[in-house]
Amino acid sequence: MHEMAIARSILDIAIAATEKEGAQRITRVNVVVGELRGIVPLQLTFCFGLLAENTIASGAHLNFEITPVQGRCGKCDETFLVEDYRYICPKCHGADIQTVGGTELRLRDIEVE
Amino acid sequence: MKISVMTDILEANDRIAAVNREIFDSHRNLVINLMSSPGAGKTSLLERTGDALRGKLRLGVIAGDIETTRDAERLERYQLPVVQLTTGTACHLDANMIASALPHLDLSQIDVLIIENVGNLVCPAEFRVGEDFKVMILSVAEGDEKPLKYPLMFRESALLLINKIDLLQHTNFNLEEAKANARRVNPDLEIMDISCTTGQGIEDWISWLSQRYQRKFGET
Predict the structure, then answer these.
(1) B147 half-sphere exposure, CB direction, 13 A CA radius
(2) Any idea which fold B11-214 has?
(3) Measured between CA atoms, how close is A79 to chain B, in angstroms?
(4) Do B3 and A13 count as a contact with CB atoms less than 8 A apart?
(5) ipTM at complex level
(6) Hey, what CATH topology would domain A3-112 get?
(7) For residues B151 and B161, what is the distance between their CA atoms, to the nearest angstrom?
């Protein structure tokens, strides 16, 4: 249940950013979550809603942008979607693959009133 | 109104982890974040490691457990510096918990510090604590498909120890399949077969630790 700790961090960052701008209420929080992070959106939404009660984020909608796993081939520089964890370059069949997408865990922006 | 934030959600944790890392570096500690599911053999590995490192490198342990202090009690007879962190409901250790343990350890008397994370294949992989390497244990009693079910931990680890290898013949665990699955998730992953019961592979694990220590500090 790392979702609770992650929800806490999202809320802390969002509230700090909102207060800095002098806004009164958070209506929506947009996060970018990589497929590799093993985050369950439903659980994260539940934890966030619970923690947000009685704060300026109470009732705010948590929106997810899920990013797929992406690899870049160290041999031919091809960037491709890694499906089913097959870290093999589709172009040159090289196996020296660096993960360049799918591990994100970022708060992108917040919508406030 | 929209406020652009673009912040790593775990930034606060990572900042504390970086401070921990500086403290470890200044005390010449090689720090391993040891992760696995419950019962895979983390404490058994520490017992073996305590014995095998004696006279070579000085081992210290931070042991995370949800409720009990049993792991620390098991390690007591090895006369190692051990701090037990009881996490309550938390299913993982984070950088702040490790920071809170540091005043209870004399880091200048430790060469290799192993942080025994809470038994869990998901959450511990998310949180940096200031380690040099993440190492994970998978036991043959668990199943060869685990790397595909829990990719982040396999992805984050530098070394995978496949434990209870002495039980292999009694299980339907396909060793080659497990390794292939792990390498699909992390092609750079080093893999060793070990048994904390028979001692098989423990020497390889000890040389891995010694090499990493040498690479970090240039001597033993």
Answers:
(1) 32
(2) Rossmann fold (3.40.50)
(3) 17
(4) no
(5) 0.85
(6) hypothetical protein PF0899 fold (3.30.2320)
(7) 16
